UniProtKB/TrEMBL annotation:
Cellular component GO terms, alphabetical: plasma membrane
Protein name: Prepilin leader peptidase/N-methyltransferase
A GO term, aspect molecular function: aspartic-type endopeptidase activity
Organism listed in the record: candidate division WOR-1 bacterium RIFCSPLOWO2_02_FULL_46_20
Residues annotated as transmembrane: 70-91, 97-115, 122-140, 146-164, 197-218, 230-252
Length: 256
């Protein structure tokens, strides 16, 4: 029941994340007005606001104007519920309360960044700024050394992606890295420190390369097309959060 309750709470948080995903790139308030259909602006009813189940009860359409409702809504709510459960298993609240709280905030921000960049090819700066602040605060609780590592990591994350983007622009004569990616790199560095940052970036580029090859293979993109990098950075951050230490131990174990 404990994990089920966490999943339900996470799904409701996912409903709020959906609001952020829809409104942030449009520079709208995430608080006012209340939840409404983006097509007809009708205020949503109780059934419409039930996470996950509500989408299927209304059969994926607005009950007021019959406009289609994106499947992204129940997907984000399900992912958010899963994030709450996974965080509780990885960082038990009773023994690692601060790490648990950090993981929930950090992962929620990554969910927003992932879907906004995927849909609009832009990363909301406010989400990255908040992520940097949360990462620095979390590492500050672990002592001066961790905080300094996080501070260096934030600067390094920004600089590495800026450097890659600058080189890419010189080679391809067009922007190769969005400004939002730089702040997301800083967010990852603030969360994992300068050591963990390298793993997060390596995983991000590995995932981006795999996805790009698959899209090219299926003809979904062509050489030279822009593919948002934010989702890959976010995915690299998620993997590093949950499995980073195990990956590093495994990797170092091959050489020691």
């Amino acid at each position: 029941m404990y994990l089920i309750s966490l999943f339900i709470i996470g799904a409701f948080v996912g409903s709020f994340l959906n609001v952020c995903i829809h409104r942030m790139p449009r520079e709208e308030s995430i608080v006012f007005p209340g939840s409404h259909c983006p097509h007809c602006n009708h205020r949503l009813g109780v059934i419409d606001l039930i996470p996950i189940i509500g989408y299927f009860l209304i059969r994926g359409t607005c009950g007021y104007c019959q406009a289609a409702v994106s499947f992204r809504y129940p997907l984000v709510e399900t992912i958010s519920g899963g994030v709450f459960v996974a965080s509780a298993l990885a960082f038990p609240p009773l023994t690692s309360s601060f790490a648990f709280a950090f993981s929930l905030i950090f992962l929620s921000l990554l969910i927003v960044i992932f879907f906004v960049d995927l849909e609009h090819q832009v990363i909301p700066s406010v989400a990255s700024y908040l992520g940097v602040a949360v990462g620095l605060l979390f590492n500050l609780s672990g002592g001066l050394n961790l905080f300094l590592s996080a501070l260096i990591g934030a600067g390094l994350g920004f600089f590495i992606l800026y450097l890659i983007g600058s080189v890419g622009k010189m080679l391809f004569k067009k922007d190769a890295m969005g400004e939002g990616d730089l702040y997301l790199g800083a967010m990852l560095g603030a969360a994992f420190g300068w050591r963990g940052l390298w793993l997060a970036l390596f995983l991000a580029y590995l995932l981006a390369a795999i996805v790009a090859l698959v899209l090219l293979g299926f003809g979904k993109v062509k050489m030279g097309d822009y593919v948002p990098f934010g989702p890959a950075l976010a995915a690299g951050g998620v993997i590093t959060l949950f499995f980073g230490q195990k990956i590093l131990v495994w990797y170092l174990g091959m050489f020691l």
